[in-house]
Amino acid sequence: MESQIQKIHNQLVAKEFTCTELVKEKLALLKENKYNSVNTVLEDLALEAAAKVDAKISKGEEIGLLEGIPFGIKDVYMVQGTYTSASSDLLKKYKSAYTATAIQKLLDAGAIPMAKENCDSFGHGSSSENTVFGSVKNAIDTSLVAGGSSGGSAVNVAADYTVFSIGGDTGGSIRQPAGYNKIYGLKPTYGRVSRYGLMAYASSTDTVGPLAKSIEDVAIVMNVMSGKDPKDQTTILSEEIKQNIVASKPEGIKVGYFKNFIENDAIDPKIKADFIATIEKVKAAGYEVQELDFFNADTLVSTYYTLAMAETASNLSRLDGTNYGNRIEDKNLKETYMVTRSENFTEETKRRIVGGNQVLSQGFSDAIYLKGQELRNEIEAAFEADFNKVDIILSPVTPGPVPKIGEVLSNPHAMYLSDAYTVGFSLGQLPTLTCPFGTETGIQVTGAKNKEQTILQFANFLNQVK
Ligand code: GLN
């Protein structure tokens, strides 16, 4: 699909409609909402920002590409003065005191904030059912889950409620819902976009990225959000993604895929067959394709969940009702903490806090947490070796098809295993893009660190031969 941002930009400049008209139309859709994809509609903010854009256009002033473009924000980003609930009871009435860097950059570029989007609470989940705002429904088939945790963000883009949305991806939360709703979703290299103002889930793999309908739009948004930020010491310098290169044919690229992702019992036969068909198309286009050995899915999932639970238990320990959120008073301070946390976190979040504290506890941490760290180092080293052999790794996004609403919640272990193909790239801190074709839940295009441009270029080629 062509760039929606460019298209709307041209229409605004040609005065086919005003920004206020556009924003009102989207606000009406967001409010009516068939999918339960929104926690708060940012009506006043959006209309105020739209009026500024209209004033500029009517004075004949030039506007930037993102100026006047409506976008959505996963409800884990601070936007000053708005509710930032993380889809939890604890923070349901919490208002952000400041704005996240990535979001501020988009606001500075004139993009219009439309809504805080429903998601799995604190990013804990793969279906956007772990939320106190009710399950998000899939944009293509409402009997199916939206995917998660950035489910509301994916659905809003797919349903044209927003032009793009900003999700968060710790272990697949942008890529998997993008695949489930047939849009693009990029998890950038760790550190490319500042995490300042993103509620921390697992700090060592948390990333900020866009969901959009075109590759071009992913690049436009990334170029605005990327950059070093003194407020996030893990941020890195990165180069601009050049649209002319993304649009050109990738030359001299070697492609790889993990044999054991495809040759195992867990993969759905249709997803397997479709993935192999894509590999054949890549070969037919003249690219060298190598089979690679990798860690099996169980090891990836166990390593990821060991570390992610440890980090989230530690990050969420600040939420005891003292400084933020819904405090429930009880007999004494200790009971107050206990009741506040037991009543206000969801079952899934509590499972992770309990698991994480176990992983980190005295007597267990060497055997579990440090073992997880060691495995992570080995996974990172394996990626480094692979990217000496190939430039791009292709993989399915998920082993199975999109689940029905209700199926996932009843079986957390199956939910964790469904993340088998996304979590490894998170542990490696690599950039990876979901493309909405190739298999029922999409295809992942992954590169070495900082190779976003190459990934998008290769995805653009795949889109042409699909
Ligand atoms: N489904 C994974 C998890 O629950 C990934 C979530 C995410 O990326 N926030 O941990």
Q: What can you see in these coordinates?
A:
The protein has helices at residues 4-13, 19-32, 43-58, 101-108, 151-158, 175-180, 215-225, 243-247, 259-262, 269-284, 297-316, 333-344, 347-360, 366-389, 412-417, 423-427, 452-465, and strands at residues 38-41, 70-74, 112-117, 164-169, 184-187, 207-212, 254-258, 288-292, 392-396, 432-435, 443-446. It contains 17 helices and 11 strands. The longest helix is centred in the last third of the chain and has 24 residues, at 366-389. The mean pLDDT is 97. Helices cover 41% and strands 12% of the residues. The chain has a domain at 4-246: Amidase signature (AS) domain (Amidase signature (AS) enzymes, Alpha-Beta Complex), CATH 3.90.1300. It has 466 residues and is α/β, with parallel strands linked by helices. The protein has an 11-stranded mixed β-sheet, with helices on both faces. The protein binds glutamine (GLN). Residues 123-126, 149, 169-173, 201, 308, 419 line the site of glutamine. The active site is at residues 74, 149, 173.
Task: Describe the sheet with the most strands.
Answer: 11 strands, mixed
CATH class of the domain at 4-246: Alpha Beta
Order of helix and strand elements from N to C terminus: HHEHEHEHEHEEHHEHHEHHHHEHHEEH
Query: Can you tell me the overall shape?
Result: globular
Distinct compounds present: glutamine
Q: What's the arrangement of strands in the largest beta sheet?
A: 1-3-2-4-6-5-10-11-9-7-8
Quick check: average pLDDT? 97
Which CATH architecture of the domain at 4-246 is right?
Alpha-Beta Complex
Could you name the CATH topology of the domain at 4-246?
Answer: Amidase signature (AS) enzymes
CATH superfamily of the domain at 4-246: Amidase signature (AS) domain
Strand-residue proportion: 5-15%
Number of H- or I-type helical stretches:
17
Tell me roughly what share of residues is in helical segments. 40-55%
**Amino- and carboxy-terminal Cα gap:** 13 Å
What class, by secondary structure content? Answer: alpha/beta
Q: What integer value in Å does the Rg equal? A: 21 Å
| Poorly predicted tracts of residues | none
Q: What is the β-strand count? A: 11
GO cellular component, one term: glutamyl-tRNA(Gln) amidotransferase complex
Domain Amidase: 32-456
GO biological process, one term: translation
Keywords: ATP-binding, Ligase, Nucleotide-binding, Protein biosynthesis, Transferase
